[in-house]
Recover the amino acids of this structure.
């Protein structure tokens, strides 16, 4: 269901709607945490605006780099298409810009990133519902499990998504094309469920974890492990040692988060 409904000449797209809900929920939760730490709650609006702009720009740029050959072939079409957003690109650019902003304003970076950690986790899950509804290619490999689903009406149907995976085409293809109605792992739903569970854990830990910064590093570890595992049933090209680009970035986040937690423990002692 890429398009949910129309209001006159305007079309409400499922992914855009869920992305909007993501930022609203994230901003609300960030406001609650800032108030709890006796900081200016209005800061949440500024951070959210930076996250929206830099997140979307970073996600689009990262997608273009990932699909460089397609970009060179149709640069205008890819740059201005409604789809084609890569989460890690948006996450990295938005994080860097927000940290630089906090540094310029001389605000406590680690305390604020801790406030944002639960929001980031839940927001990721909500956005994945948008991917699920849009059928934009974030689904998984073919499956015969009872909950396997078809994404034939999505913006990126299986006949297109699997064309660069010869092993899948040879096994499931008909005349060299994988049928659009093939059942696959509903990976976005897996990610939503895991994100909600991890959000609940982070939300409960937010008053217990010390010192400042430790909760954010814990978020990096949680998010990295979740994405690392789910990629094994997701359709992404493998780059090194059978791992996808997202898995390599996930490993980096796990390493950064783990070292951060170890450092925070030693600092707390």
């Amino acid at each position: 269901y890429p398009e949910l409904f129309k209001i006159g000449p305007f079309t409400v797209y499922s992914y855009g709607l869920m992305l909007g809900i993501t930022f609203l929920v994230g901003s609300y939760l960030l406001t609650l945490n800032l108030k709890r730490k006796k900081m200016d709650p209005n800061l949440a609006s500024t951070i959210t605006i930076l996250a929206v702009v830099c997140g979307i720009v970073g996600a689009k740029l990262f997608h273009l780099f990932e699909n460089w050959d397609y970009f060179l072939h149709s640069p205008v079409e890819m740059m201005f298409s409604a789809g084609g957003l890569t989460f890690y690109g948006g996450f990295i650019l938005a994080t860097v810009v927000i940290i630089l902003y906090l540094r310029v304003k001389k605000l406590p970076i680690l305390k604020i990133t801790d406030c944002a950690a639960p929001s980031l986790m839940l927001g990721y899950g909500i956005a994945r519902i948008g991917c699920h509804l849009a059928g934009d290619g974030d689904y998984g490999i073919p499956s015969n499990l009872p909950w396997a689903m078809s994404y034939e009406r999505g913006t990126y149907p299986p006949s297109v998504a699997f064309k660069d995976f010869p092993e899948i085409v040879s096994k499931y293809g008909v005349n060299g094309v994988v049928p659009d109605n093939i059942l696959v792992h509903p990976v976005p739903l897996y990610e939503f469920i895991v994100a909600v569970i991890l959000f609940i854990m982070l939300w409960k830990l937010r008053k217990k974890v010390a010192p400042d910064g430790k909760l954010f590093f814990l978020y990096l570890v949680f998010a990295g492990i979740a994405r690392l595992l789910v990629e094994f049933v997701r359709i992404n090209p493998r780059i090194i040692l059978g791992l996808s680009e997202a898995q390599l970035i996930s490993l980096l986040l796990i390493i950064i988060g783990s070292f951060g937690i170890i450092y925070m423990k030693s600092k707390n002692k």
